[in-house]
Specification:
346 residues, alpha+beta
Length: 346
């Protein structure tokens, strides 16, 4: 990064994500929720667009032999086509900090700069989380990037949306709520992405609490409804869901003690629902991020002895962008299952 007349190079290069940042999250501390949900690809500085991979493919209308052939006969003609990938612009975020040159003349100045830079890093981090979860719009209200839940809802196969309230636990699920995952949900997958398990379940606190109830069908042992998946008898794996990710109601940062409001943002996760997400390898959604924010070389504005510096950083998501999907499943959330009205099972 560039240096200035009063910020040393050592102080400037400290703007990287630290393990323990100085800001307190509001409520439960969850940094980088987006990275729990999506693969992240590092972008080079100066890159504004990410491109879906170009590739060579077989034309679906190629001539192929339909009967036995002999030596010397034409075996068929396979046409090769080149696919040019789409591109998505990754949004730029900017945050600034104001420094007092007099403060920087005393001992411990580098620590002041480091703490201010850490605060900026936390702002970038929480903004990237919010963009991934909620999406982002421009000044005219046009969607720049969808949020992950709105994209999932728009791209889940309608047959993979299960209304739990339409099922009778006793007769349809053999008295075991976990069978809605083991039997109902698993039977609706194609095997394209889910062979023996989903990668994760996404749910809110209350839905998770429902699954924590102790069952009455475990024989010699007692376990929660969710742990019943570990002892399934369908031959689809020791555990049908590998991990669980709790989606908070809000994310944000605590503001000063005398502030009238907090910097908090609501997360639009559907009530009483859960998503079962396969290991899609980034085909459904991916994050693209620069390694760390970049300092604008010259001060933005000066006010007496105070100088404001700005940092910018690009980070954002692309949906339905992977190269692993076949044309049939392109831009779809294949094998994702959403279960609504989960509380009716308990």
């Amino acid at each position: 990064m560039a240096t200035t007349s009063f910020l040393t190079e050592k102080a400037q290069t400290l703007l990287e994500p630290d393990e323990d940042l100085m800001l307190r999250r509001s409520g439960r501390d969850r940094r980088g929720i987006r990275r729990e949900l999506a693969p992240t690809t590092e972008m080079e500085r100066g890159t504004r667009y990410v491109e879906e991979g170009d590739g060579v493919y077989v034309d679906a209308k190629s001539d192929m032999p339909t009967s036995d052939t002999s030596v010397g006969e034409v075996l068929g003609n396979v046409d090769i086509v080149r696919y040019v990938g789409d591109n998505v612009r990754i949004p730029r975020m900017t945050h600034s900090m104001t420094l007092d040159s007099e403060d920087l003349a005393i001992d411990g100045a580098e620590e002041k700069v480091r703490r201010a830079q850490d605060a900026l890093m936390e702002m970038f981090d929480i903004q990237a989380d919010l963009q991934f979860l909620e999406g982002i719009t421009d000044e005219e209200g046009n969607t720049v990037q969808q949020g992950v839940f709105s994209w999932l809802d728009a791209n889940i196969d309608s047959n993979n949306v299960i209304d739990a309230s339409t099922l009778d636990v006793s007769s349809d699920l053999n008295g075991v709520p976990a069978n809605i995952v083991v039997q109902e949900a698993y039977s609706r997958t194609s095997g394209e992405y889910v062979d023996d398990a989903w990668d994760m379940v996404l749910w809110d606190h209350q839905t998770r609490a429902n699954w924590n109830q102790i069952d009455n069908n475990s024989g010699v042992r007692q376990s929660s409804q969710w742990l019943d998946l570990d002892s399934d008898v369908q031959g689809v794996g020791n555990s049908l869901v590998n991990d669980a990710v709790l989606i908070p109601d809000k994310i944000g940062l605590n503001t000063a003690p005398d502030a009238t409001d907090s910097l908090q943002f609501d997360i639009s996760f559907p009530d009483d629902s859960m998503y079962l997400i396969p290991d899609h390898g980034g085909d459904f959604f991916q994050m693209y991020e620069q390694p760390e924010p970049t300092l604008v070389q010259e001060p933005l504005r000066k006010n007496g002895a105070k100088v404001e510096y700005e940092y910018y950083w690009r980070g954002g998501q692309a949906f339905g962008f992977g190269s692993n999907q076949t044309d049939q499943y392109d831009n779809t959330a294949k094998d994702v299952v959403r279960i609504d009205n989960v509380s009716s099972l308990f």
